[in-house]
Automatic annotation (TrEMBL):
Key words, A-Z: DNA-binding, Transcription, Transcription regulation
Species whose genome carries this gene: Rhodoplanes tepidamans (Rhodoplanes cryptolactis)
Sequence segments annotated as region (Disordered): 1-22
Domain HTH iclR-type span(s) in chain numbering: 29-91
Protein name: IclR family transcriptional regulator
Length: 287
């Protein structure tokens, strides 16, 4: 597609599309904002448009719109309509919304159940799912006002094979999906967190399948003791996992297991039943 001759006059920003503020340039990425404006230009009434129509709707010049469209086409969010000069959004755009909705649904399901678990065991608890090669923390509930020495927040991603909560999911995946997850590069590789090789990982997964849980020192914060169990769906495969953490100096393996394992297994069953009832998506998003 050739670069258009000349540039179109920038039109006023349509209703619903916020005008870019030059004063925000130092704290924002203007090119990203322009790309989003191009996506937002498409509507139910204008689902297919030419470059000039998109430029007018987005309030951008034709040259900028051309570059934004080329980028969005190359990454799969916009499609060129064959044998025409028109563009439309691809189904990949829907994935962004569906993933956000799915995770919100999971949080709505999980949070009250995690809160009940935390109230019972008096330790912080988390719920995570797989996303690509990582484990993604969907929900986390503290025990009272206690802040543990660990920087795990909602939305945190860590290579799945590195963490106890991630391995609790990996141990209960079909073999072909396990291989695919392990072959997927982590989103944010960490030089301090070494991913175990298969010779080290496989015996750990076998032990998890045998015992149904993992109890060990946290690899992220060594002064924490961590217990993790999978959430198993109706098909017998993991849809996520729960973890409970306790200060290393204030508990033992036997104490944490005695206090938390049965309540965690019960919570995992409740989450699995709730997911099945509402048809929630499983942990295998992008796996």
């Amino acid at each position: 597609m050739a670069i258009p001759n000349g540039t179109a006059r920038t039109t006023p920003s349509p209703i619903g599309l916020r005008r870019l503020d030059p004063k925000e340039g130092k704290s924002s990425v203007q090119s990203l904002a322009k790309g989003l404006r191009v996506l937002e230009a498409f509507t139910a009434e204008a689902d297919e448009m030419t470059l000039s129509e998109i430029a007018a709707a987005a309030g951008l010049d034709a040259g900028t719109t051309f570059r934004m469209l080329n980028t969005l086409v190359s990454v799969g969010y916009v499609t060129r309509i064959p044998e025409s000069r028109r563009f439309r959004l691809s189904l990949k755009v829907l994935d962004l919304g569906f993933n956000a909705i799915a995770h919100k649904d999971l949080r709505d399901i999980v949070r009250p159940l995690l809160q009940t678990l935390v109230d019972e065991v008096s330790e912080a608890a988390s719920f995570a799912v797989l996303e690509g090669g990582d484990v993604l923390y969907i929900e986390r509930v503290r025990a009272g006002f206690t802040r543990l020495g660990v920087d795990i927040r909602i939305g945190t991603t860590i290579p799945a094979a590195v963490t106890s909560i991630g391995r609790a999911i990996l141990a209960f995946l079909p073999e072909n999906r396990l291989e695919r997850v392990l072959a997927t590069p982590p989103r944010h590789p960490s030089p301090t967190l070494k991913t175990p090789d298969r010779a080290t990982l496989d015996p750990r997964l076998d032990a998890l399948r045998r015992d149904g849980y993992v109890l060990e020192k946290s690899v992220i914060t060594p002064d924490l003791r961590l217990l993790a169990v999978p959430v198993i769906g109706a098909d017998g495969w993991a849809t996520g996992a729960i973890s409970v953490v306790a200060p290393w100096s204030q508990s033992s393996d036997e104490d944490l297991k005695a206090r938390a394992l049965e309540p965690m297994l019960a919570t995992a069953r409740h989450i699995a039943r709730a997911q099945e009832a509402v048809g929630s998506t499983s942990s295998l998003v992008n796996a």
